[in-house]
């Protein structure tokens, strides 16, 4: 087990009607004027935004709004938010939405007190030293951004989708999580969220660090719970307990607890970021295509943990033939993804003729010549994985 | 799943040589003068206390000391610490030790700014509104106090062992956790710690709240990891990775994550507190006696979750005969406890003639006529469990 620091100071307020506590929570964390950030009209139509604003009013918190954040959020809305927040002297960011909305709010929170261009943080030119405080009202369980210090933003000019990871400065002070607000999520979005949270665990789980039994078991257990509850939720979108388990799993998957003491991987995420930057697909659906392809490559190049994953998460019987165990686990994972309506090839994702040359080029331009840790992927390896995702069996 | 709040803001700094960061961490959390609290001579002999003091000196943090805290810590040391801390104007509590030392420091931290008697907090007469900040250097993985807002203190006058649970005010700001400092723990103390952390998970796991799959899986997975690593650690006390897994499991077991959304039980802990208050036994060893007895009673009175525990944690094959499954799981649990050197009856714990009348009377005087939640125990039920612990098979 490696040395680690685990710090998850977010106050998670979970359950029915918890959005009514938003104002009191902003006040508890010393906010006086909040910039509410949201996406499309669903939080307006559902009445959630109104409930949040009423709760702010009751707590005496002033508020202004920035709506219209899109999936795979881009830099223009961040610049707009920074301008607006500075002009209006806000001291608190309040995203009401999913990962795209939260990540935009985080970039704004770091950008407001920074004299330079906020994009500096995403290209590694600067490290955020301070940020406005952030409180989240979560509507989509997927990205885990409510419990992480991370943000992912796409630069429109150049289609660079980059992530910023901070140990603490961008961690939300609180996250309000009412599973009922997820009842109306479309099936596609629900399933994409499920895939994303599974991927967040797996990016940490596939490690060469040995003797991380506690962390392994936390990840495997959460994956098993997600698999069970996702099957229920796809059939019964209004099942409170299944929605609640999925929502809480999304946070556990990404607040860091499932990676304690491990060297993490993250190659699949980086590979998917190139796909969604180029083809604007849903991140989780892109991961449903990339992760099985990545695992298939790993069955040949570093089979150990893939076999453990197959045995402990997918109940594949043990065998001395680790590759066979691994491949059966991957087959069960793909069958599960199909069952919840996810694609497992680029074609099923709607990309008939992927430009693999360009994906490989962008990946290594953005992330260096070697990507990931479980196996460090060079251009040949990442090309092979994109080709597996494209249906190739020649590897 | 029930509504819940989960807030674990402690910064866990885990791994080799982390004690050297103590001074910087106290400074980060705005301490300027620390009261170091410790137990016997082991932290002196091992050189740990010196390393901590040197780290404080290097960070420019003033410090004074209060040593001599005993297991099952009592109120006189708390009063002494409050007096000393006030007189010397300390603004930070720095326990270097295990649960007894940390719990004493917490009571001092809450007592210093409080005008009344600190014992008010433990008898429910007052709720702590403020406390000095606490940072922990952990030496015994067991109580989980490094990641909890709880403290357990025994009043010498009347032998009342009572616990105080706060959602946040007593949560340590940081916890420094170096598994190497646990190499020299005696086998008895290691095994007692293992039992205590297992009990912390089980007190949360045995619930009538349904559909808590994520939480169940986190608890079951952590228990499985503890069982595996404890077997290694008992044979190889200097195995770093096994010590590290056990140490981290002790925190996970008690920082609240394994109880999210559940009505918790805690009857076994309360029953054990009466035993250790009366007979001054090691808390974990007392739990090794009480918990199997409690489970045996539950196999007859609320078998569901006991059977799930048997199947998922102890790999007992499924069967329609849930009671048989449950009893086999309890048998495997007891065999494991014997394997690591723990007692499973009061006699094995060294109490030949327990005063069960007095234990029952104290339990219900301190905790009310009905204790616990999984099955609410009246005097007859708690008597039966103490009798099972005493070897009785007439139930």
Outline the structure in words.
Two copies of one chain form a homodimer. Helix content of chain A is 49%, strand content 12%. Chain A is built from 15 helices and eight strands. Chain A folds into two domains: 11-181, 3-Layer(aba) Sandwich (Rossmann fold), CATH 3.40.50; 186-389, Dehydroquinate synthase-like, alpha domain (Up-down Bundle), CATH 1.20.1090. The longest helix of chain A is centred in the middle third of the chain and has 23 residues, at 213-235. The model of chain A has no long low-confidence stretch (mean pLDDT 96). In chain A, helix 7 (187-205) packs antiparallel against helix 8 (213-235) and helix 11 (283-301) packs across helix 15 (379-389). By secondary structure, chain A is an alpha/beta fold. In chain A, the strands form two sheets. Chain A has a six-stranded parallel β-sheet with strand order 1-8-5-4-2-3, with helices on both faces. In chain A, strands 6-7 form a two-stranded antiparallel sheet. Chain A has helices at 22-28, 42-45, 48-59, 75-87, 99-111, 119-122, 187-205, 213-235, 240-252, 267-279, 283-301, 304-314, 322-339, 356-367, 379-389; strands spanning 4-14, 33-37, 62-66, 92-97, 133-138, 150-155, 160-165, 174-177. At the A-B interface, strand 1, helix 8 and helix 9 of A face strand 1, helix 8 and helix 9 of B.
């Amino acid at each position: 087990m490696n040395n680690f620091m685990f710090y998850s100071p977010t106050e998670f307020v979970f359950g029915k009607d918890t959005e009514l506590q938003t104002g009191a929570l902003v006040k508890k964390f010393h906010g006086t004027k909040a910039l509410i950030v949201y996406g499309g009209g669903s939080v307006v139509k559902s009445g959630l935004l109104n409930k949040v604003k009423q709760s702010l009013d009751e707590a005496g918190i002033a508020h202004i709004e920035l709506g219209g954040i899109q999936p795979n959020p881009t830099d223009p809305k961040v610049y707009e938010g920074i301008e607006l927040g500075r002009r209006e002297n806000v001291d608190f960011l309040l995203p009401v939405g999913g990962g795209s909305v939260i990540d935009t709010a985080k970039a704004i929170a770091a950008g407001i007190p920074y004299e330079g261009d906020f994009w500096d943080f995403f290209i590694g030119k600067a490290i955020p030293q301070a940020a406005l405080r952030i409180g989240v009202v979560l509507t989509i369980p997927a990205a885990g951004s409510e419990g992480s210090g991370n943000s992912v933003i796409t630069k429109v000019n150049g289609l660079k989708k980059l992530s910023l990871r901070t140990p603490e400065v961008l961690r939300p002070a609180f996250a309000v999580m009412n599973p009922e607000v997820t009842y109306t999520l479309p099936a596609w979005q629900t399933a994409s969220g499920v895939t994303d949270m599974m991927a967040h665990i797996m990016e940490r789980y596939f490690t060469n660090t040995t003797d991380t039994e506690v962390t392994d078991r936390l990840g495997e257990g959460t994956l098993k719970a997600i698999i069970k509850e996702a099957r229920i939720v796809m059939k019964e979108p209004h099942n409170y307990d299944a929605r609640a388990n999925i929502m809480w799993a999304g946070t556990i998957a990404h607040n860091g607890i499932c990676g304690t003491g491990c060297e993490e991987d993250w190659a699949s995420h980086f590979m998917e970021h190139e796909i969604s930057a180029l083809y604007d697909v849903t991140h989780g659906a892109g991961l449903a295509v990339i992760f099985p392809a990545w695992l298939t490559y790993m069955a040949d190049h570093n089979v150990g943990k893939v076999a453990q994953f197959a045995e402990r998460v997918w109940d594949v019987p043990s065998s001395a033939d680790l590759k066979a165990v691994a491949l059966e686990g991957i087959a069960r994972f793909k069958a599960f993804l199909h069952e919840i309506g996810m694609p497992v090839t680029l074609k099923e994702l709607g990309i008939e003729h992927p430009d693999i040359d360009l994906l490989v080029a962008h990946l290594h331009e953005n992330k260096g010549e070697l990507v990931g840790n479980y196996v460090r992927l060079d251009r040949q390896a990442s090309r092979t994985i994109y080709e597996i995702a494209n249906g190739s069996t020649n590897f």
